[in-house]
User: Fold this.
Amino acid sequence: MESHADEVVVDCDAFRIYRSGKMDRLHLPARAPTGLDPASGVRSKDVVLDAGTGLSARLFLPSLGPHPSSKKLPVLVFYHGGAFLIESAVSTQYHGYVASLAAEAGVLAVSVEYRLAPEHPLPAAYDDAWAALQWAASAQDEWIAEHGDVARLFLAGDSAGGNMVHNILIKLASSDPAPRIEGAILLHPWFGGSTLVDGEAPEKAKEMATIWEFACPGAAGGADDPRYNPTAPGAPGLENLRCERLLVCAGEKDWAAARDRAYYAAVAASVWRGSAAWLESEGEGHVFFLEKPECARARELMDRVVAFVAGS
Assistant:
């Protein structure tokens, strides 16, 4: 008979969490090789940022053409999703997406390989996200120094990575000196809270809160920790977001869509001085663009992200 400690509290396609605190990762992502992609002309390489913590990043440099100009590329720091528990910047899925983003938006992308819970509970991933931004902004790497314009910094992330983008933007407000962020792209960001918002499914919200508290056992207020619920009582005001432009994206049928709409509405209603935009992909679910990158809605989303980076 199954013991109480062995009871499964979360069972999904990618992982299983037990009441004992154990977790099984059910599908380890395949690692994509670095190098030159002949189809897109994008080059990639891996760089260790902190040997002590194991923090690293995969850099993507788009083709500069047969006659490279002296104009430098915007630098985009990307944080992958996976509930802070799974996935990788070097998986075939994220390698493919960020390489496409670099090629189409014309950015030098820094995809961060941060530490995962439960081996490294939050705030380890947040700490890594911040350290990676500082590293990218310092232009220590030869690719960034030669080809990157760190005066045009962008942040982007999907799901848990979108959550990380928000939290970095808040942290920047209390940091001096701090890198200037031109724009931030939150792709289906993962937020929650103890009180349901309009359109949020109760059972899914409960499951997501369980996953959050598993990844962040020290969460203050559980699901109302400000890092998970940006509009919780006592959370830093959204006027503290430190970027000039913000793009929030969701899928119409995404379990996270209700929270994402509420987040965008709260930003738009705040006294934040930046410019916020919203894109909802009709008929699509959570991070659909990773599994179906060539579908019409994924193309529409990529086009919007490209336009956002270009300033339109």
